[in-house]
Amino acid sequence: QVQLVESGGGLVQAGGSLRLSCAASGRIYRCNNMGWFRQAPGKEREFVAAISSSGGSTYYASSVKGRFTISRDNAKNTVYFQMNSLQPEDTAVYYCADAVICGSSAYTRGQGYDYWGQGTQVTVSS
């Protein structure tokens, strides 16, 4: 089992920035490609970004590309999500997730995630 705990959410004005963190603990798998998702009220959960186990490859949804940056510190078992130029439409609960199957690219498309955090609320006011 892997436990994921997100932090760093909050209320920010449009144009502002937040940095989310996702700390992982528990079982360590050989592969742990990580992703960030979000779910706005009344909407389905949306894939927003992913990063490979090594941190060498990153993937973004078009809605956040150029504004958000995913990164990781494997020594700290932590993934980060720097969000800049936030807009009201970015308001959502943000979740991190872990894909532990090696050799699959499904995680780059928001699929194949095995473990999920509880989420952290991000609210952007206009």
Q: Which labels suit this protein?
A:
126 residues; single chain; mainly beta; 11 strands; 4-stranded antiparallel beta sheet
Provide structural commentary.
- The chain has 126 residues and is mainly beta.
- 0% of the residues lie in helices and 50% in strands.
- The chain has strands spanning 2-7, 10-13, 18-26, 33-39, 46-51, 58-60, 68-73, 78-83, 92-99, 115-116, 120-125.
- The strands form two sheets. Strands 2, 4, 5, 6, 9, 10 and 11 form a seven-stranded mixed sheet that branches. It has a four-stranded antiparallel sheet with strand order 1-3-8-7, with no helix packed on it.
- A hairpin with a 4-residue loop joins strand 7 and strand 8 (78-83).
Number of helices: 0
Q: What is the chain-wise order of helices and strands? A: EEEEEEEEEEE
Unreliable stretches: none
Largest sheet descriptor = 7 strands, mixed
